[in-house]
Amino acid sequence: MTSLPLLAHGHEDDLVAFRHGQPITAWQFLANVRRLAAAFPPGGHVLNACADRYHFAAGLAAALLADKVSLLPPTLTPEMVRQVQAFAPDVFCLSDQPQSVALPRLVWADVMTPSSPNPANENGGPWDIPHIPASRTASIMFTSGSTGAPVAHRKSWGSLVRSARAEAHSLGLLDGRRHSIVATVPPQHMFGFESTVLLPLQSGAVLGAAHPFYPADICAALAAAARPRMLVTTPVHLKALLASGLDIPPIDLLLSATAALPLQLALDAEARLQAPLLEIYGSTETGQIATRRLSQGKAWALFPDVRLSIAQGQAWASGGHVEQATPLADEIESLSDSSFLLHGRTADLVNIAGKRSSLGYLNHQLHAVPGVLDGAFFMPDDSGDDKVVRLMAFVVAPGLTAPTLLAALRERIDAIFIPRPLVLVDAMPRNSTGKLPREALQALAREHLRKRAPMHSDTTFVIAADHPAFAGHFPGAPIVPGVLLLDAAVHAIQQSQAAAQTCQISTAKFLSPVGPGETLTISCRPGAGNTHFEIRSGARKVATGTLVLPPSP
């Protein structure tokens, strides 16, 4: 049976990690791992919720020694935890900070107290690196499917090791130097798991335990790490770091993933930091499979032995650490056996009135508008009723107004893809890896529509017989003018919004004449950036239409 080492560090005094300014040797790491493994309760699954990257790495290694599988869900929401527990009823949670997770818990600090028992070989035992069977399931990564149920993707120890070694080769970390790795991404997600935990363990690099988020914290973590040092980050964190104006310690290599990297940001980062900026491409299903340096071209270079094939418009990855052919959720253009172009996610394609674009392209144009700090287009789900589903956009742009932004977008994208509405927000709901989960954007959309929704759906009114409009409309046969009905609809919307907003008439139909003194009822139904109205006289429908509301300030 093939087995692979837990560590690539060849000597017990080699540095494995640095934590709070203190170096941790390979011997110390394995001592912690053995103590933790001995303390694990029965059961075959552990949910590793440790926030400290070193604690997480030791927990992963301890699970391997104890023949347990590490479960790594995308979130720790109560519902996600319930579903993970349904998947593995024997799961317990390893944590290093207070958690509200409704699972049996093992706390790092309780295991590592001086009074806790030590494994017999922890002190003075022979130096040996454990080897793990390559075929053993080491971790299960979870993604949320279209139904919201977690989808499990098993990762063998062999595939994880091969992936980490291929990444180390592609990034040039096997040059004989001991690289320090500082990261702004958490270890539980695929990018952080591979590039900030497995990569240092399998390349002989030094793992940084911290999880800095703010620019000042990133600078402090970099300053504490020995050179050569690599920063593993996201476009969001990188953009904030460059905009901070802080004195950034020298960086020898930058690595980015989780979102599309704008070319200008890549150029600015390399010019400012005097270091190459590489990107990682991959997925939870395949793991990382390619790298590129955007400043030198758009093509991606595949990891050694990984291959792509195109069948009926679907791209598939196989070979190397990808143990079985796996479909990719992206539009791929193959250039050669070892390179390809990425044209966006298949799910991001937008087709409106026969014209196609992608959310990635639209977001790129949005971010290119001067003054835009962050933002994203969003296509709501089709509700199945007769309402037209329209693109929305949420934007962080202090100092800019929605009309100004819309005018700038009209210069960049086809008018049919102009968002209706464009909503200005203080911050985007990005997660810890810098991604914008669709669920978070859906929540933003619901909140926007809630604010737009009329407080009173029905309004009753009467056009009195002595209204001056009847004098000319029409003498002897008075009929309520359509403009009065529209004015009543606008007034009803303004009242429900508690603000004097102007409205633009999108459509209006007058279906039945209305006489003076009739009791009329207006029903309003909010939509994405507009309000549909219907006016009735008793059971008789007399007018319908749509009024477009102004973009949110």
Short description:
This protein is an alpha/beta fold. A hairpin with a 2-residue loop joins strand 31 (530-537) and strand 32.
Overall description:
By secondary structure, the protein is an alpha/beta fold. It has 13 helices and 32 strands. The strands form 7 sheets. It has an 11-stranded mixed β-sheet, with helices on both faces. The protein starts with a strand and ends in a 5-residue tail after the last strand. 39% of the residues are buried.
Structure keywords:
single chain, 553 residues, alpha/beta, eleven-stranded mixed beta sheet, 13 helices, 32 strands
Tell me the β content. 25-35%
Helix content: 25-40%
Rg over CA atoms? 29 Å
Taking the alpha carbons of the first and last residues, their distance comes to 65 Å
Q: What is the residue-mean pLDDT, rounded to a whole number? A: 86
